[in-house]
Amino acid sequence: MSHCEPCLDIPGCIFCLSSLECIDGTNEDTDFYCREALNTTESCPVLPLPSCQFYDSCSACLDPALNEGCAWCASTSECILSHDIFALSGCVGALSQPLSCPKPSVPITTVEGDFVVKEVDEVGLGGSFHVEGSCFESDCHKEGRYSFIINNEGIAAQSGGAIILEAADSNNHNHKGSDLYLKSGNGTSPVGGWGGDIQIIAGNGAGGE
């Protein structure tokens, strides 16, 4: 409580431990609105001060496993000592519980029209497409990530759930729905080669016998 001793050095002042405020000790109503008042410097609690200023996010600032005695000032996006909330006039919207931290938001980019990814002709670089993110542990790969990658080495898809390939329906009279083609590559070498395989492999079960 860094403001306790300076408060009690002022004649007529007492430090209210319940509200962490320096108040007028001569006021007759002090006992009514301050449940625990300190009037000597010897009674000021001596606590190790946490290194709140080193945390730059609300979740880290209020994580009880990392520190205690810190508060997150929402208006300035700073981690401060919790008892400094009353001393800092520029702090609006102080948070003290981890669950009160605002949820992080991710911007969404919407493309209307065509989306083209191509390599730089002059240097032959670029042209790759990579989508990646985390997926739920209960329905994901052991790496905990899903991804869809297109580059000069091939196309790789690793899902966070089911993969559905579905051709388009057709509403035309006496017309079949759209076809779905899976075709492996040809072996085109004039000195020998053969076409690639198509493999469909079901998953394994890890349960005991």
Describe the structure.
The protein is mainly β and 209 residues long. Among the domains are: 4-43, no CATH class; 52-100, ligand-binding face of the semaphorins, domain 2, CATH 3.30.1680; 119-158, no CATH class. Helices cover 6% and strands 20% of the residues. The protein is built from 3 helices and 11 strands, in the order H-E-E-H-E-H-E-E-E-E-E-E-E-E. Strand 7 and strand 8 (125-126) form a beta hairpin. The two termini are 62 Å apart.
How does the helix and strand content classify structurally? mainly beta
Radius of gyration: 32 Å
CATH fold-level label of the domain at 52-100: ligand-binding face of the semaphorins, domain 2
What is the architecture of the domain at 52-100 at the second tier of CATH? 2-Layer Sandwich
Report the span from N to C terminus: 62 Å
Q: Quick one: biggest sheet?
A: 3 strands, antiparallel
Q: Which CATH class of the domain at 52-100?
A: Alpha Beta
Average pLDDT over all residues: 81
Task: Note the total helix count.
Answer: 3
Work out the strand percent.
Answer: 15-25%
Shape: elongated
Strand line-up of the largest beta sheet: 2-1-3
Residue runs with pLDDT of under 50 for 5 or more positions: none
Q: Give the fraction of residues assigned to helices.
A: under 10%
Number of strands: 11
Order of helices and strands: HEEHEHEEEEEEEE
